[in-house]
Each structure stands twice: as structure tokens, then as C-alpha cells.
Design brief:
- It is globular, with a radius of gyration of 30 Å.
- Helix 2 packs antiparallel against helix 14.
- The longest helix is centred in the N-terminal third of the chain and has 19 residues.
- The protein is α/β, with parallel strands linked by helices.
- The protein folds into 2 domains: 178 residues, D-Maltodextrin-Binding Protein, domain 2; 191 residues, D-Maltodextrin-Binding Protein, domain 2, CATH 3.40.190.10.
- It has a 5-stranded mixed beta sheet with strand order 2-1-3-13-6, with helices on both faces. A 4-stranded mixed beta sheet has the order 8-9-7-10.
Length: 449
Amino acid sequence: MKRIISKLLVVCMLFVMVFSVTGCGKDDTVDIPKETETETDTPKAEPTAEPTEEPTEASTVLKVTYSGTPEIHEREYLMNSFFSAFEEANNCTVEVDFVAQADAIKKIESEQSTGNIVSDVIYADTANMAPYVNGGWMEDISGIVEATGSTYTKMFDASTNRGAERFFVPMSFDVYITAANVKALAYLPAGLTQEDVVKGITWEQYADWAVAIAEGEGEGKVMMPANMTGSQLLYPMGGMSLAYGGGFPEFTSDGFKQVLGIIAKIAAADGFYAEQDQYTAPTEPLNSGDVWLTFAHMAPVGASYNAAPNNFVIGAAPKGSTGAGSTSGAWCYGIQKGAPHRDLADKFIEYVADPEVNYEFCSNYGGSLSPISEVADFLESSDVVMRAGIEMLETTTITGVPATEYTDWNAVKLLYGDIFNNILENKSVPTDEFLTERQGKLDSLKIAQ
């Protein structure tokens, strides 16, 4: 600054000596001496001051609406590590609102309809993504994501993208895998070993194993997530259907009926855990030892395995007549349209796209799969659950969650619950009339193209 002032003083003094003026003008500009002008017949335009842009003040707060309610250990990781690392790197505060998925949709819909935009970033799963995308509530973040250089799977583009526009970027995804308490190995059907479980047994063998456990222990210790509030039951049942050439969602194919036969065999032997209707995930009953065998979502299985790795055997999805099958959904981040702290929101998308950040996140979420191919470089020998899921991707029929094709995905979930509860009650496969009636209800929920 001192050097600039000195130069100005010298210039002013020089002009005083040459042109006998009393000082610089009140706007600190001076007339250009004629001998320095370019010789031309065209009149010189009067100089104009360049417009000065006011610097944009950087945001110091990022507000995240986190749909879904993470488990205690997950929330601790999010607040104490994941978000805090972003805060430290960007000298800001991240305010997180943990809300149920249905409440998150209502919240963002209200913000958009009133124009009172509060949330910057939204965390949602592909099964609940339709309202955000179809409602036009999200910003196109394709440019930000592409600029990161991270290579994303295209498995979930049907939910996260619309044409060339991207509204969400996946953070993690998962498949369904087998988890067994080591005590259950004593009841394996003849000829099977622990290594067979790891590689993937058949669904018929799985059912025989479940029955043997119930007979040997005097109680059912096999679980499906049967709670109907926020039901997750359709996902393992959908994966089983794919293993027999059935579809997802659908109720009347021969493949799906074979699946119902597997479930009915376990139910007839009272092989299911008596309190499974209280849970949407098997983590707690696996930890307590009440459940010895399950085909479940990687993340809750991973939480149990990571807490006591010597207690469990992790295996691939069981096989049906056409191989193994699994549904798969993803949890994703996006920026709400009109986000008040857009500068920080953009930086946050860049942050979550960093392969190292993503690896740490997936590891702390029970070994969920990363949607970023570069994360494979970070895998360690201890990443048992994550490796099991990755190996399944090569040999398993996997489908995403077509929630955006239905008017009410929760209603679809409840139809699966109707079928499952019918089996538990009657200990047999539902009648064709029952399944056809449920198929009609499913068809009525489909969005017309």
C-alpha cells in the first residue's frame, strides 16, 4: 500500500510541474497528457471507471437434511468424524437435521412451495428419491460431479439422473448377503462346510439349515425383517425371486412362487425368530444371539460382524435355479434448488466424491459398497463384508429399486408384507387367487407411461 501511495504522489507532483495544476481530481483521476495519446483522427472516448463487483461473502453454515435415522454408532461417526472433517477443512459449521424419510419429503416440499429454503444438502435413498427428482426440487450437479474425476457406477442412474442432468450422487450402496452365527455351523446340512456358506449355498440348503437349527435348538433362529413400519421385507424377497428367474416387484411368476415355497418350508417348521416382526434389520438380534441365520442388507450385517468378527460367518447370497439374486439401493447426496449456502453445498459434493472420504464412510457403515471404482485401491484384508459384496457383483443378478415407477413405494412394501404374513399364518404358499389379487393392487400403483 505504501508503495502505491508513493507512486501516486510522484505522478501528481510531476503533473503539477508540467501542467501547473493544483492536484489530482476529486475522483483521483487525471487527464492523459496529449503527447502520450495515440496519433489518430478518431476522437478519443472519455475513460470510464470499471464497475467494481462486491465480493461474495463465503458461507459459514451448511444445513443438511438427513433422511432416515442412522443407528447410534453411525450417528456418532457422522457427527464426530465425517461432518467434522468437512467443517475443519472449510472453516464452517454443519447443521444436520435427522428426520424420517417421509418427514424429509414433507419438509423439502414445504420449503419449495413456500420459497423459504432452509436446507442446502439432502441425503436420501433411491427408494424415496422420486418426489425430489419428479418435483423439480433439486439442482443439477452433473458438472460438479464430473469435475471431481471420480468414476461412478451407472447402476442407479435411473433414479439419480434425468437425461444429462444429475440430481443426486451415490454415497454407498449394498447387496443382500448371508450371515450366520458360528454356532449354526453345527446344523449345516450333510456335505456342506463353512467354505460353502462363504461361496454361497442354495436356497433349498438354506431352508434345510433353518429347519435343522429350529429342531436342534427348540426355537426358530432364522430372521427376515418383518416389521411393517418402514418395511424392508420386499428387498430380500425380491432378491430371492431374481434367483429363480422371477421379477421385482411382481407376485405371480413361477420363480416367485418357488421363493414362497422356500419361505413356507421354514415357516412350517417354526424356523423363524418369533420376534422378527419387531425389526427392520437383524443387527440387534444377531448381536444378542437370538438370531443365528439371516439373508440381509450388508450394512446391518456388517455392524454385527465388525463388533464381533469371530462370532459370524459372512457368505454370498444363496442361489436359486438361475443363480444368486439381490436387490440393491443407494444412499445419495444432492443440493436443493435455491440452496442459501450454495458455495458450501458445492464443496460438500466435491468432498463426498473423494475416494478416500468415501472409503472411510462405507467402512464405518458396516462395509457398505462404494459407488466409486477408485475406492477399490483402499481395500484392506479386514474389509471382509465389503469384499463379500464386491465379489457378488460379478456373479449375481442385481436390480436397483424402481421406486420412481410407482405412486407409493411404501404401499408396494406392504403388499409383500401381506404375502409374507399369509405364509406365516397358513404355513403354506398362498393361493393363486390371493397372489393375483395382490398383483392387481401392485399394477394399480404403477405410474402410467
